[in-house]
């Protein structure tokens, strides 16, 4: 009967199927559905740009309008992947231009984007509307100028945490007067100035502007003028938030804020005078998202005062900066006596924890929390401890996503957290000392994380740290049934640990391991598993060349890449030689052709 | 310290760790009311128990109170149940400031790093060198050490790390008067150097220090920094002279003595610190000196114009 179902109807039904996973599932039902689906798919998501190539994507989805691509492995964020590893977007843009794809949206993460790519993009797709670049690199403001000048219907230019070479040109001024379609503009990661007048005019002529995130170079008085022009904003990232708090400008800013009744998300504060913060109090009551993690100058006290106004917060990113750290840092060429230092650190931990206590009592709607380390360069690294986490878990029952950098942790705390918050989808804990045991019992933190995976049945992403044995992986394998991404560092005792995970976590997609004693036995036990996963990263583990070669031979549809840095490239390295960095991923298109010399695909 | 005007009323209090008779309190989260600001003040206390300082000003456990609203933080001592939500109460802050005595024997955390190292066989991770093994009895300090230098740990994006390092100098200064049209993307480095180190000597201490005046933006902060600088040296000095630990420290820094901060300006004159606005001071100061106040009989405290910076004031 299905054969007589008109395709138009199928297509219409498929319009309601939006997630790429669901569409992938739909396409597997039968040939007819596969065919209808592929011609109607407009949004394509490619989790690993080397798993497939542009030609095949275009061949299968000729009507693609929106492309999402991810490049480098996640650990590239932490300098574990050498530059020039790969992840170039140019071939994709080139191919789409050649095939006349009507590209409207391009979203890239951890890719290398050159100015040429941006120029080609800007000139090839007349309906191009949305460019989102996250953690990318390789371009300059000249490339942005090309986008601004040529994309007549640009709605979104969203640059998040990219490394951009600022050429001091006037890229923002390149938006023509006829550009009135902007809905979202985020240039917070840029380091250079933009012409304030051009910015104000741009904002004034884009009535649909909903999201605006400024960079460090935009001063407070420009912000004030912009807000007066754009009270309809939903999402605001301030630029520099430094001014004389008693000035007229600050007063005007506060008034402008009062009129911005739609702002739900606030970020920025890339440079801040805490005494100016009260200017934002008028919008705090309606905020659902607050990111203060870039703010170097907001100390815990002021932060707490601000947070106390934000009762509807659902998402919060913070650091707890503690001024005292800098006293100890700056005035002592030599650290304080141990006792003095230790005492101070414990106070500061408590300040951090109390700050979280303030969050716990105020933000009852909180769903996502990220607590970044307070001061990477101060002596001693005070921050928060397990107490803060427990307080949050007790006070915020809707919490489902957390990234928590802390000085120390205990099993008891984790067990309490697991009981209080069974809804975690993402749980990422990072102890600043990567192998620190339970602060009270000195035992490994196996039981604590075990409680988390057992209680949080919907857990999809987990990062573990602290002293951990194979036992924690036994728990993860046993209980973490929905787990898709697992990050391991300095953990485990033997191959068993990794085996528990590979055998147990049926939905695992990404596994990244560093500095853990997992070796060949674990790697080769179930080679078929890797085709069910997007990728596996192992660095500073115990796998050898020989094992990697064996794996590559057995699994032709995997690329097993070895990254050699600083070593001589031997023609045939010894099979027993330990591999420093290995990255393997499933692919339909074999070894990539753009790999640099130091990357070997076995 | 007397004579300071507080510019930012709201947030100064917890930052003032200069010893006075004030107490700092930490509020339990469950008991917060709408007076959150007041209740979020922090309190500091000396280590519990083993006070070897013979100072009867230390009142032990006067406000020790387990189930209450306000806590004093202890100096390195946590209760037998550190996982509990309440930091332990200890006696109030003594007048003479930091006393480096730790009641560490019941501190279970003390061996954390040691245990961690032994039980883990990770070759790549090595603990921070500042393990402070030289100091007896203070093994809990092991935990509070500089971060281990492991590549890519803690896992923070470079973007964030660059923020922190680039702005560490900004943290010390909260400029209140910034030109409205300041659009430069970096602090101007061509015209003014980022540091201004001057020598500082203290009476009775043969070895001087150096302080970076650009790290501060007020006399308050400088005073605290100077206090901390020499406290450590005084303690070290008394240690090496073989006196009983703690007792001598107390003797040198007890509340009856005072020190005054003076400076030598660009004309060679010795001046009292605190009379002129901060930025003017910074532009003329050449070196600093900490004198015993007994040598300055003619100075009166709380003078109308300026602020006298004294270290270890005792307020009767």
UniProtKB/TrEMBL annotation, chain A:
Listed transmembrane segments: none
Keywords on record: Auxin signaling pathway
SUPFAM superfamilies reported for this sequence: RNI-like (SSF52047)
Key word RNA-binding present: no
Domain F-box: 5-46
Calcium among keywords: no
Entry superkingdom: Eukaryota
PANTHER family: F-BOX/TPR REPEAT PROTEIN POF3, PROTEIN AUXIN SIGNALING F-BOX 3
Protein's name in the database: F-box domain-containing protein
UniProtKB/TrEMBL annotation, chain B:
InterPro entries to which the protein is assigned, alphabetical: AUX/IAA_dom, AUX_IAA, PB1-like
Region (Disordered): 29-64, 164-190
Cellular compartment(s): Nucleus
Keywords: Auxin signaling pathway, Nucleus, Repressor, Transcription, Transcription regulation
PB1 domain sequence ranges: 195-298
Principal cellular location given in the protein's record: nucleus
Polar residues composition-biased segments: 53-63
Basic and acidic residues bias (residue ranges): 29-41
Function: Aux/IAA proteins are short-lived transcriptional factors that function as repressors of early auxin response genes at low auxin concentrations.
Entry's family note: Belongs to the Aux/IAA family.
Subunit structure: Homodimers and heterodimers.
UniProt cross-references to PANTHER family, sorted A to Z: AUXIN-RESPONSIVE PROTEIN IAA17, AUXIN-RESPONSIVE PROTEIN IAA26
Name of the featured protein: Auxin-responsive protein
Native organism: Rehmannia glutinosa (Chinese foxglove)
Phylogenetic lineage: Eukaryota, Viridiplantae, Streptophyta, Embryophyta, Tracheophyta
